Amino acid sequence: MYKEITDWSEVWALLIPLFFLFRQRNKSSYLRPVRMYVIIALLINICAISIQKYKTEWGYELGDFFYSNNFLYNIHSVTRLLLFSWFFILLNQKFMHRIKMIIPFGFIIFVVINFIFYENFFNRYNLSSRLLATEAALLLFYCLQYYIFLIIEDKGIPFKKQPGVWIVIGLTFYVAASFFIFLFYDYLVVHDKDFAIDVWDVHNVFYITLCICIAASLNSKDDE
Questions:
Q1: I want to staple 188 with a disulfide (CB 3.0 to 4.6 A). Which of 111, 179, 196, 197 is the partner?
Q2: 41 in Cβ contact with 76 (< 8 Å)
Q3: Positive or negative: CA dihedral 199, 200, 206, 212
Q4: So what's the pLDDT on residue 8?
C-alpha cells in the first residue's frame, strides 16, 4: 500500500493545487502559466506512471513505443521550464529581465541540438540527465534572481505578501534537491538501480512540497 502511494505521488500531489485552482481565489495574471502547468503536468504524470506500473500487464515489449515513459519525462521537463519561465517573466520584475526573456529561447535551442546530435528523445532505457539537470539549474537561477530582486528592491512589503513567493519557495526546494538527483540519475540506474529507485522517492517528497506551495499561492488573496 505504501509503495503504491509513493509511486503515484507525482499524480496525487498535483490534485492538491488542482483543488484550489478551481476555487480561483487568486486570479492574478502571473499565475496563468502555473495553472496551466498543474493541468498539463497532471495529464503527463498520469500517463507516465501508468506506463511504468502497468506496461507488463498491458503486454508492452521492448520494441513497443509505450514500453518506456522516459519521453514523457522529457516533455514534462521542457513544459515545466517554459511555463515557469513565463511565470517569472509575468512577475514583471525588471532585475535581469532581458536574461529571463532569453533563457526560454536558449533552452529550446539546447533541447533541439541535444536530441538531434547527442541523445534520443525516445530513449527506452534512461532518463535524460542532461536535460533534467539543465532545466533544474535554469529554474534555480530564476529563483535566486527573484530573491536578489527582493533584497535590492525592498519596498517594505512583507516577504510572505510578495507576488508568487510561495511558488518560488517550493520551486527553490524542488530544483535545489533535484539537481543532483537528475545529474547522476543515468549513472545510478546503470550502476545501482535499487538506489536510483530509492533516491527518486526523495525527488517525489520535494515534488509534493512544490505542489503544496503552489496550492498555497493559488489559495492566497489576489495581490495583483
A1: 196
A2: yes
A3: negative
A4: 87
Whether residue 200 has pLDDT greater than 70: yes
**CA–CA gap between residue 165 and residue 159 (Å, rounded):** 8
Q: Grid coordinates in use for 104?
A: 526560454
Q: What angle do CA 8, 166, 75 make, to 5 degrees?
A: 45
- pLDDT tens per residue, range 143-163: 999 999 988 876 666 777 788
The alpha carbon torsion through 41, 26, 155, 81 (nearest 10 deg) reads 10
Q: Are 48 and 7 in contact (CB under 8 A)?
A: no
Residue (of 107, 111, 115) closest to 86 by Cα position: 107
Is residue 126 helix, strand or coil? coil
| pTM for the predicted model, two decimal places | 0.91
DSSP 58: T
C-alpha 79/C-alpha 29 separation (Å) is 19
Residue 98 cell numbers, joined:
532581458
Residue indicated by cell numbers 509505450:
66
Range 69-86 average pLDDT: 95
